[in-house]
Amino acid sequence: QLQLVESGGGLVQPGGSLRLSCAASGFTFDSYSIGWFRQAPGKEREGVSCSNKIGGDPTYADSVKGRFTISRDNAKNTVYLQMNSLKPEDTAVYYCAAKRRFFCPRDQSYDYWGQGTQVTVSS
Asked: 72-90: per-residue pLDDT in tens?
C-alpha cells in the first residue's frame, strides 16, 4: 500500500527550529520527486520546497529561502525539511507529495499526498 507519512511537527517559539520527515512506502521512492507544501487556516495550499528524484537542484518558495533546507535519503525512503528561524507566519499544516518524474512539477500536480503534520509557531 502506497503511503506518505509526515512527522516532526509541533509547537515551537519564533526563531526556533523543527525538522519534518516524510517517510514513503509502497512505491519506488527514488523514481519520484518529492515536494513539501503547507496550508494555513483560511489560505490556499502553497508550495514550500521540492527535491528532484536524486536530491539535486532543490527549489524553495521565496518566503522560506535561507531558512528551510530540503534533503532526501533514498536509502531510507525519506525526505526531510529542516526549518530554522521559524516565524509565526510559518504556522500551517505541512504536507509532502510525490510525483513520478525526475524534475519537480511547477504546479501541484503530484501523484500522491500525505495526511499532513501541524506546525505552530507561537510564543
From this structure: 999 999 999 999 999 999 9
Residue 55 has pLDDT above 90, yes or no: no
The type of residue at 93 is V
- The region that residue 77 occupies, defined by phi over 0 for left and psi between -120 and 50 for alpha, beta otherwise, is left
User: Strand pairing of 117-121 and 10-12?
Assistant: parallel
Helix (H, G, I), strand (E, B) or coil at 94: strand
DSSP states along 103-123: SPPSSS--SEE---EEEEE--
Q: What is the per-residue burial (b if ≥16 Cβ within 10 Å, else e) of 66-82?
A: eebebebebeebbbbbe
Provide Rg for the chain, Cα atoms: 13
Contact present, 88 and 103 (Cβ < 8 Å): no
Dist CA 61 CA 76 (whole Å): 26
| Amino acid sitting at position 6 | E
